Amino acid sequence: MSNRAFNSNSSSCLIIGGGISGLITATILQRKGIKVIVLDKGRGIGGRLATRRIRHSEDIEGVFDYGTQYFSVREPQFKVWVDDWIEQDVATEWCRGFGNSDDQPRYRGVEGTRGIAKYLAQNLDVHTSTKVVKLNWQDSQWLIETEDNAQFQGDILVMTPPVPQSLALLDRSDIVLPTEIRNRLEQISYHSCLAVLALLKTASNIPAPGALALEEPLVWITCNHQKGISPKGYAVTLHATPNFSETHWNIDDQEIAEQLLAAASPWLNSEILEYQVHRWRYSLPKTFYGEPYLALSELPLVMAGDAFVAPKLEGAVQSGIAAAEYII
Question: For the whole model, what pTM was predicted?
Answer without folding.
Answer: 0.95
